[in-house]
Amino acid sequence: MNRSIKQTILGHPPPLPIPHRSIPQPTGPDLDLISIAHSHLIHAEWPELSSVLARYRLTPFRTNHILLKTRPDPVLSLEFFNFADKHFPDSITHDTRSIILHIQTKSARFAVADSLLRRNPIFDSPDSSPALFESLLRTYRACDSSHSAFDALFRAYARARRFHCATDVFRRMKDHGFLPCVSSCNAYLNALNAKSRARVALAFYREMGRCRIAPNVYTLNAVMHAHCVLGRLESAVDVFRGMERAGCRPDRVSFGTLVAAHCKNGLLEEAVRLKTAMSASGVDPGVVTYNVLIHGFCKEGKVREANRLFREMKARGVAPNVITYNILINAYGMMNNSELGERVFEEMLKEGVKPDILTYNALILGFCNEGKTKKASHLVRELDRRGLSPNSSTFCALISGECKRRNADRALRFYKAMIGCGCHPNSDVFGMLISAFCRNGDFEGAVPILKDMLGRSMGVEEGVVVELFEGLCRSGKSELADELQMEVKRRQSAKAGLMGG
What is the DSSP string of 442-453? Predict the structure, then answer.
């Protein structure tokens, strides 16, 4: 059926015609040079080619026609383009880059096309899409090309997360009767989801439907993810249930997306039923699905059920990874059961799973919560042997542990070590330190900590400040308390003024 008639039947305006533009045919010296250069090319006589082109000047017109002569051999055409781009950059124009792109996409060399687009000097400019699209349009007929070149441009912008340009290319493609393939649309949907633009992703999916671009399982997975991000669990379930009608079979990602969403909403029984249905459908739950379920149960304090899933995954031959062990160790730490956390850690080492800084932080926090600061300090010394470095969370746990034991001086040493390592304390760390000194009656010892906190422009918890000021007043330091109080008010006023500006 004629393309214009088909578009009209579908309710769309007829497409804009492709311009009837062609590159003038070479004559005289141009024709001679192009023929000689092509001969050297097909015989791989690069030194001779270089000499001829340097002597008789390689113009953009000549470069374009040499590329057109090499169209049947996309590898050779790319070699020549790279050669010209390196040695004769003045011979490369927008149209030259479009010609090589047409040649590569016509031969389905899409990875090469993507690389060529990203190498284009104007690709990264904010409004490059009109110029690149028009250049492809100008050279379309001369290259006897297909819609794939425009599809490659759309996909390149999508993968680069250049959403404005991708949308512009999509609109222009539609105007000329071209549509991107579903894999390019999926790249756009996934890029939008990755940048938390779920509403835009769903709007684009609806546009895909209007354009009759048939979705595949990867499309529907992205749509489900977008619905879940927006809290529309029922809509995500509807998409899942409609997969079969759309000719798609749910895969591990399809099930995993719904399992994660149900766990996030505390619907753990339904999440487990989905995992069971997943197995019944012939889709094996992988380590990611089990990790999501185990984390969901641990978050709700149901560690026994989490352990049952842990044993089940091992029985099914799904090897736990560092994330699995970290979830369980952290859960035991939150339960003040560091002994069981240690057992999980020992099993982890026995299974050959390498711990990371999150593993050690979970163990350290568990020990500190129980006041076992010596064990926690021993783990910190072990970090270096493992090639790991303590981070802010490590020091926060150590400071918390010492503050709970009212070892304010040791907590302060960890604070100084934290600063020395380039880690940044948060307001909780300052609050713990100030409170620890106050509980020990060392109100003057807390003053430098408060000043450091103010110097970092951090908000001060009112209860902590009141505790310090009252303590200073009781110990005969009323003037210092008044001075600090004025400084706190001045800092808070300055911060409010900045936010108001």
Answer: -HHHHHHHHHHH
